[in-house]
């Protein structure tokens, strides 16, 4: 698989890390969800919601501050800290509850299905998102969850952003598509966040750098076989039909029109939106009181 990450400048990041850590920040994220680091990490962990004794891989872990604060609050959790930067790893917590792995997140020397949870905080944007999400999915157990917080592109393109930050901001649609292709179901948690920390670090450049981007948080769940089989069983019940749950409230909407074009003889079933009705996509007839389609298509 060819990997095409943005031009992440490891030497430059390593050169500024000691200064940033000593004078400014220990959490290397542009956007915050709370006024102080402890509450910010508490919010991230609320979103991840790890079970008792869980294993968590923090991919692109910075100096491990998120893991350190999370472990203080939840000593039952075990963290594996992954970073391409040996300098940043040298600042990470060690000892009981922490394993450090220096590697590229696109190809981690970690066994498949070995973690309950994963974190990627402000890290995916430094990577080639598709392969990096697939790699995260590989090391997660089926049903495991990955918390992603990162830049999102609202408008404009990434050329300047890649040059300034060595990062790439995905659109919502691109992110969701890549997450799905990697085998995840995505739940959006929040758009936006407080970027005052980042603006204070780069007061002259922040407006320029942050133009056209916001920040997003998602909880991705690795789809497991039970989920897939459940979905297949549901679909199997409606062989020959197209089953849509709550997506289509009215047969006149755009999705229904599109289905009608693509699947001219399909039957559209309205499920979970009140009494079940069926609409023939060939002629638009609705089910009668006996629940049958009068048109016979
Ligand atoms: C903006 S920092 C975020 C750090 C950390 N997640 C935090 O919240 O403090 C991005 C991190 O990703 C790491 N990183 C970037 N590209 C990487 C790669 N290909 N493989 C592993 N780590 C990478 C960087 O060294 C850095 O630690």
UniProtKB/TrEMBL annotation:
<dbReference type="Pfam" id="PF08241">
    <property type="entry name" value="Methyltransf_11"/>
</dbReference>
<dbReference type="InterPro" id="IPR029063">
    <property type="entry name" value="SAM-dependent_MTases_sf"/>
</dbReference>
<dbReference type="GO" id="GO:0008757">
    <property type="term" value="F:S-adenosylmethionine-dependent methyltransferase activity"/>
</dbReference>
<feature type="domain" description="Methyltransferase type 11">
    <location>
        <begin position="57"/>
        <end position="147"/>
    </location>
</feature>
<protein>
    <recommendedName>
        <fullName>Methyltransferase type 11 domain-containing protein</fullName>
    </recommendedName>
</protein>
<dbReference type="InterPro" id="IPR013216">
    <property type="entry name" value="Methyltransf_11"/>
</dbReference>
């Amino acid at each position: 698989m060819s990997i095409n990450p943005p031009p992440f400048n490891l030497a430059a990041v390593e050169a500024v890390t000691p200064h940033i850590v000593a004078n400014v920040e220990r959490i290397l994220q542009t956007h915050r969800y709370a006024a102080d680091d402890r509450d910010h990490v508490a919010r991230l962990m609320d979103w991840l919601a790890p079970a008792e004794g869980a294993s968590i891989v923090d991919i692109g872990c910075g100096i491990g501050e998120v893991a350190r604060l999370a472990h203080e609050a939840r000593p039952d959790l075990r963290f594996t800290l992954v970073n391409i930067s040996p300098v940043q790893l040298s600042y990470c917590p060690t000892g009981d509850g922490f394993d450090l792995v220096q590697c590229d997140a696109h190809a981690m020397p970690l066994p498949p299905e070995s973690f309950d949870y994963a974190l990627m905080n402000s890290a995916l944007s430094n990577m080639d998102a598709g392969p990096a999400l697939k790699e995260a999915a590989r090391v997660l157990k089926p049903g495991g969850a990955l918390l992603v917080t990162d830049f999102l592109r609202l408008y404009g393109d990434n050329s300047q952003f890649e040059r300034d930050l060595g990062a790439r901001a995905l659109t919502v649609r691109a992110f969701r598509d890549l997450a799905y292709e990697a085998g995840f179901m995505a739940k959006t948690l929040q758009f936006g966040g407080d970027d005052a920390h980042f603006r204070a670090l780069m007061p002259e450049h922040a407006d320029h750098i942050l133009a056209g981007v916001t920040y997003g948080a998602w909880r991705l769940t690795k789809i497991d076989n039970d989920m897939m089989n459940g979905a297949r069983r549901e679909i199997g019940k409606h062989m020959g039909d197209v089953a849509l749950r709550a997506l289509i409230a009215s047969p006149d909407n755009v999705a229904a029109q599109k289905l009608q074009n693509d699947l001219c003889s399909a039957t559209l079933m309205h499920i979970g939106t009140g009494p079940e009705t069926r609409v023939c996509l060939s002629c638009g007839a609705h089910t009668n009181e006996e629940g049958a389609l009068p048109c016979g298509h």
